[in-house]
Amino acid sequence: MNIFQELKLRGFVYQMTDEAAIEKKLANEKVVFYCGFDPTGSSLHVGHLLPVMAMRMLQKAGHVPTVLVGGATGAIGDPSGRSTARNMISMEEVAHNVECLKAQLSRFITLENGEANFVNNHDWFGNLKLLDFLRDIGSRFSVNRMLAQKSVESRLENGLSFLEFSYSLLQGYDFYHLNKEYNCTLEIGGQDQWGNMVAGTELIRRMYEEEREVHVLTIPLLMNPATGQKFGKSVGGTSVWLDVNRTSVFDYYQFWRNTDDNMVGDLLKKFAIELPVEECIALAECDNINRAKEILAFEATKMAHGEAAAKEAFLTAGSQFGFADPERKVKTSSAIADIECKAEAVYPEVTIPSAELEGDGLWIVKLIVSAGMSKSNSDARRLIQGNAVKINGEKVADMNLCLKAADCPDKELLLQTGKKNFKKIIFA
């Protein structure tokens, strides 16, 4: 199958400007394409990874990705899918976030042989004069057309600032600029970006006298049917980040390992893209669904953090909770097949500052949150009330428990929430 057919089979195709034309271009040309990421935070989470996976597949098929990290659009904030405006962040924070996201995205998109472009739209918007932009670009956008966009229409009752309303113009101009400077002819993005993306194709056609063939392709949003949430949240409702300081490699692996059974096939096709799609389908249908989950978790972790980290997470989790296929009977081309299953128990470590143990000690609720095992104090309280918290194997029943230095003579303890969430807390 060609790359377009594989993208469809893996579930990466939702809506596009011209299916036949896009498939033909991808089959017969070396296509320069782009996808944008706004640096509203310093880290991506797994919910951002769908278009990244599609970009990696397209690059491996011989096409040229242009990764746009929006230092300009990130300062505004995309209103798509939001009921309220984003909190404004400083330009210094935006610039910091740009560098963080570039580093993360470079793990997935290779720069070897110059076959990729990494760009920041602040480079062309930073020196653009407002009057010139309004005359040359703003005059080519229809307000009626913009008001009809779902991202705008859904916000009119609650209020939409002109700042957010202008986002579509900036994203449209991005496509025009990349088409002019890099001969970029395809934009990909999430399905909620359709209106902004089509604005770019329309602007390009209006800016040139001759016809230019440009297209957009959207990727369906991935929802967790068990929770009704967008994919990317852990059981506790916290986002699963690529930044190891926010989500440890072990927790990242466990997120994939503990996925719902009915999502395994879809997730294998989308996030284990180094495996043939036929293998992904076969794994989801095999008799050992937990081995399929191990392979999914290993492949997703390897992609984000490297093979050595994925191997360590696999062995750590298996030694604690058991291996799904210790004799490695399930056939797979994944490198996990070469790993000998070991039984030694190892627990991921989290360092908590020793100063927290001074005076009245460290409140158990704060410890749970600080260790990243709950997203808020209220969630931590609910865990304790549900008898789901243990320290060194003993259930914690006292909501007001404060740990003191005398309680931790070795400056460490084993904290557990639920059946499969362990962390060794080390007080530095």
Describe the secondary structure blueprint for this structure:
Blueprint: H1 3-9, E1 15-16, H2 19-28, E2 32-37, H3 49-60, E3 64-69, H4 91-105, E4 117-120, H5 122-125, H6 130-136, H7 143-147, H8 150-153, H9 162-165, H10 167-182, E5 186-190, H11 194-207, E6 215-219, H12 249-257, H13 264-271, H14 277-285, H15 289-305, H16 307-321, E7 349-352, E8 362-363, H17 364-370, H18 377-385, E9 389-391, E10 394-395, E11 402-403, E12 412-417, E13 421-427
Parallel strand pairs: 2-3, 2-5, 3-4, 5-6, 7-13
Antiparallel strand pairs: 1-6, 8-11, 9-10, 9-12, 12-13
Helix pairs in contact: 10-11, 12-15, 12-16, 13-14, 13-15, 15-16, 17-18
What report would you give on this structure?
The mean pLDDT is 89. Helices cover 40% and strands 13% of the residues. Helix 12 runs antiparallel to helix 15 (289-305), helix 12 packs across helix 16 and helix 15 (289-305) runs antiparallel to helix 16. The strands form 3 sheets. A 6-stranded mixed sheet has the order 1-6-5-2-3-4, sandwiched between helices. It has a 5-stranded mixed sheet with strand order 7-13-12-9-10, with helices on one face. Strands 8-11 form a two-stranded antiparallel sheet. The chain has helices at 3-9, 19-28, 49-60, 91-105, 122-125, 130-136, 143-147, 150-153, 162-165, 167-182, 194-207, 249-257, 264-271, 277-285, 289-305, 307-321, 364-370, 377-385, and strands at residues 15-16, 32-37, 64-69, 117-120, 186-190, 215-219, 349-352, 362-363, 389-391, 394-395, 402-403, 412-417, 421-427.
Summary?
The chain is of the alpha/beta class and 428 residues long. It is built from 18 helices and 13 strands.
